[in-house]
Structures are given as C-alpha cells and as structure tokens.
Request: fold
Amino acid sequence: MSSVEFDPAIHLAYNPPKVRVPRLSGVRRGGLSTADAVSTICQAIITMKDLDLQGRGAISSVAVTDPFPLFSQEGIEAMRAEIFDPAVLETFRISSYLSKCQIRGMAPSHAPFINAAWTSPELLKAVSEAAGMELVPIFPYELGHVNVQIDGGADSLTSLRAQPSPPMPGLTLSESESSSDEDETMHDIKAPVVAWHRDGYPWVCVVMLSDVSNMRGGETAIVKGDGGLVKARGPQLGTAVMMQGRYIDHAALQAIGASERVTMVTSFRAKDPLVADDSVLTRSYTTVRSSSRLPAKCHTETGRTEWSSYRLELLAERFKAKAAELHAAKKCSPGWGHPIMDQAAFKAWAADQIAYFQRTLDEMI
Reply:
C-alpha cells in the first residue's frame, strides 16, 4: 500500500484536450462482419454526431476526447505502488468476460491514494471540463479498476513495480511490415484485449499507466451508427481519455511492442441528479471470476450494495427537488381554486422514478 498522500500540485498534470487538425483516414477492409471500412480519427473532441450516434439518448454531445495529460510521473508511480502491492494482487485480482486480468475493488480500503485522487475536487474539475459536463464517480467500487496486458500473462503480475517498465525497442521496418494493414486490423478486431461492449455507466476516464511510446496498436475501436469502424487514438503514459461509453460499442485493441499495458478506468455519472442515468449493473458483475483469495461473490455483493446506495441517494435528491418545485408553485399560486400542479406531468415524472427504482432491482440478479 502506498504511503504517499495525494497532493494535486504534485500528482496531477492536467491540460485540457488540445484543438487539433481533424484527420480522417480510412482504407477499404474486406471481410469485416460489422463494417466495410476502418478509420482513424484524430481531433480534440469526437462528438456523437461525428459517429452518427445522435439517437442513442446520450447525456452529452461529446463521445470521446483526444488523450490529454492528467497525472504526473509521481502520481503514476504512487498509483502503481498501490495496484501492484502483493496484498492487493492477492485479494483483488479477477477475470471477467471483458478482460482476462483485472484488479478491481481495492479503493478505498487498500488504495487510499487512488481513492483520494479520484475523489479530489481538482481531478473532478479536470474530467468534467474534458467531458463538457459536471461529473461525479458512480460509486467507490468503480474507482480506478485496472486492466493489464503483460508478456507472460497474469502470472507475471508480480514482476510489475511502481516504476513503469521501460519501453521495448521500436519495431524494425521488416517487423512492422510483416503483415498487411488489413490482416493487422482483422486480427485486432477479432482478438481485442478488452472485448466488444458498452460500459455499464455513462462516462469512463481511461488513464495509461505504462510507457507505450514504442507500442503499435492499443487504440479504442468504435462502431459508428452506420456500421463503420473507427479507431480512436490511445493514451500515452499519464494521459487520459474521456468516453461516453454507455452509448458506444467499443473494444480495446491489442498492443504490439509493449512489455506491459496497464490502464486504469474510473466510471462517472452526471452530478446533476435530474440528468438521465441509464446505468446498468449486470454486465459488470455477473461474469466476474475471482483470480484471488477474495471470492467472486464478495465483488458481486460489494457492487450490489454500492449500486443500491447511489440509486437511493439519487432518487432522494430527485424527490427533494420535485418537492421544492411544488412548494414554489404553491407560493406563486393566486389562491384557492387555481391549478397548482400539472397532474399529467407529475404522473409521468412519478412513472419515470418508479421505472428507475424497478431497474435498480432488476439489475440485482
């Protein structure tokens, strides 16, 4: 466990996504089952409209950002020290249908630095600015879960340290051209390091904790509304990407030329309780297989408890806001006999809250 106390002046290095010249490059790809072209988009912000996904019910126009600096070298090393602590690996390593090697659920009990970082006002302000709306973490279990791709597989985890592994030598020309772009793309899509999915929560922040300066691949593949595939540029060491992943089908593609690829993912929702919350729980917890001494049911029970708590708190805020609205309407009423409340609108609002609570229960299978 790290003994370092989080200090935003030392451990953060935030700069917002930079305005870049848009570049769209695509080559026809034969034989793809979900698309007939793969493109790479490089721009500061990719919008839902850019991806032809306006009709998904997303809560922001922003789909995914370009990588932007978020953590300093000191911040990266403090988080890695907690992640690769033997007690954390022994207790919190799991696998799931999404990824063969994850480290999840260690904050706040075994990762106080990670917990402090992801709940700090400074970091929340940064990720909110990048996303274009005010965000809060979904709940504690989802603070800083880690996906690992490493040479030698999960058994090599104990070799990882606070200091990122040095980058592997760059690929030679013959190595980099040993297969066609089409073959490489097909392999990436068929064997991603994190499987095709939509996230369970509205927003994710993905931070790179490895030196991947000589790596090829590792992008995020996204399915557009027209079925085309887009590769969004992956982050470098200490940089982050914000993605509205609840509304986007995506996968993390294989990385070539990196001895390790460690990414940290934290999930967020809108801070405003009146904004729609389409979160789901089942995809996150029903397929967890524990690879540690902590039984899988412990991950499941923790997730269910925190899921229920945040949903009840959100509903309580909505009820309080609606009561205040009705009190204000009554004060503004001309007097007895004049309508105060739109009953049809209130019934529709109440039905939405009932549906939200029912979904809370339905997800707890």
In short: The radius of gyration is 22 Å. The chain is about 30% helix and 20% strand. Residues 296-332 form the longest helix (37 residues).
